[in-house]
Model the fold of this input.
Amino acid sequence: MTSQPLGKPVDDSLGEETILFGGSGFLGQQILRNSPKMVSVGRRKPPTPNRHVSVESLTDLSPLRRVPFRRVIYAIGNSDRPTMQKERHQPGEPTPFDHHVIPLIQTLERLMHHGITKFVHCSTILLYDDRRMTLPVSEDAPLAPYRDKYVVSKYLAEELCAFYSRWIPIVNLRLANMYGPAEYTRFDVIHVLIRQLLDKGRADVQSTKPERDFIYVEDVADAVMRILGSDYTGTLNVGTGTMASVGRITEILERISGCTIRDLDGPVAGPMQFQCDVSRLRKLIDWRPRYSIEEGVTRTFEMMKLWRTP
Done:
């Protein structure tokens, strides 16, 4: 994939009368950076200059009474799938349902009669059934929601969106393999490899064979804002519509880091290939990914390296 123009600039007036839940998270921070007029809502203030409204519990949104808003972006979640998908959780340890289901119920229940004109919910392509799908994978492809707790929690969240859509216009976004610079630990393969390279001067990868639809976080944030201004409701894939192999990513990282990445040639979780069908998205909004895989991986490495510099 080559770098392409973004199209028409996003009108930041969309940030006015828009609130975002989950502003301290990976995607939430980027959306806020792109939209200074947007208001962050939650327990933790994000590291952006946006106005922040502190809400200790989603069962009580009374602090929003003085905030005029008509649109909502809901980016609350936990991307630590290795922990979230385990079979048993210790007493008191949050489960995927505590992250993805209960907070969403609380939020939708309290906003259902507020007169919301758009509610954007972030889900995942992991819901698709990799045994029955054909490439590129469309929004209507078969799902396999019961493979682990993490995936079923995302499925239940989508079902909640379907139920509450009778009161709130909801767009459900199934996000592809999102990556980009982050100062805290993430679990996508690109972030894991960069952390290893910066910490150890070398890295191991389970396999270089899988091909995935990797999308840079800034491109996702831009797409979210454009979707916010559309009249669409329903489910949308958000990806590049192309594939890049893990092998290609390791080549880029080895070249820019000067370090070696060892291929363990081990078993692969998930499909060997995945590619989003983004035709519905591209018909809806004037948008193309801005960053090629080489540009995005390079930018991610350089930013994370800069943050590590004393």
Observations:
- The longest strand covers residues 118-124.
- Residues 12-308 form a domain with the Rossmann fold fold (CATH 3.40.50.720).
- The chain has a mean pLDDT of 93.
- The chain has ten helices and 13 strands.
